[in-house]
């Protein structure tokens, strides 16, 4: 049956798939390239990751937010419901991490990796920071997916 709620539920699920899959993919690629210590590959991946975030991950997260809000309003769901709050907070935290600390670490890593005489210790620290931030982001995102499926209440 076609309803506004079902349309936005579909958009929400597709957006979450793209958002979570994109974050997961970029995290895995960053971790794999970081292990090789190939500076040119790290620099290229950093540049491509930034484009991927701007063209796919960011818009997908925004679409998930808007579609989720439409579903809440159309479905008469309370914004104060635990699983709704959990999802909103997780989305905001993930967007904050992605647009702030993860982006800055990725940009600096890409820049420093493109300079052959760059400090190797700083590059290694940035790789570790980026890997840790991506892991935290994934935990946050997966916790939101869990909350949407199991809908915990107090």
Task: Give the secondary structure arrangement, pairings included.
Layout: H1 4-36, H2 39-74, H3 82-99, H4 101-113, H5 120-150
Structural summary, described in words:
The chain is mainly α and 154 residues long. Helix content is 85%, strand content 0%. The chain has one domain (4-150). The protein contains 5 helices and no strands. Helix 1 (4-36) runs antiparallel to helix 2 (39-74).
State the gist of this model.
Helix 1 packs antiparallel against helix 5, helix 3 packs antiparallel against helix 5 and helix 4 runs antiparallel to helix 5.
Low-confidence stretches: none
Computed Rg: 18 Å
Name the beta content range: under 5%
Order of helices and strands: HHHHH
Query: Strand count, sense and closure of the main sheet?
Result: none
- Give the overall shape, derived from the CA principal axes: elongated
């Amino acid at each position: 049956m076609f309803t506004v709620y079902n349309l936005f539920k579909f958009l929400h699920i597709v957006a979450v798939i793209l958002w979570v899959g994109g974050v997961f993919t970029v995290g895995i690629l960053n971790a794999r390239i970081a292990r090789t210590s190939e500076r040119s590959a790290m620099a290229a991946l950093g540049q491509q990751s930034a484009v991927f975030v701007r063209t796919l991950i960011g818009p997908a997260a925004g679409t998930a937010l808007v579609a989720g809000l439409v579903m809440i309003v159309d479905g008469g769901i309370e914004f104060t419901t635990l699983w709704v709050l959990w999802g909103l907070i997780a989305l905001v935290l993930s967007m904050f991490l992605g647009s702030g600390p993860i982006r800055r670490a990725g940009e600096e890593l890409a820049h420093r990796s493109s300079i052959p005489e760059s400090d190797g210790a700083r590059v290694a620290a940035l790789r570790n920071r980026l890997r840790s931030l991506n892991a935290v982001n994934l935990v946050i995102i997966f916790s939101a997916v869990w909350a949407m499926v199991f809908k915990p209440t107090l």
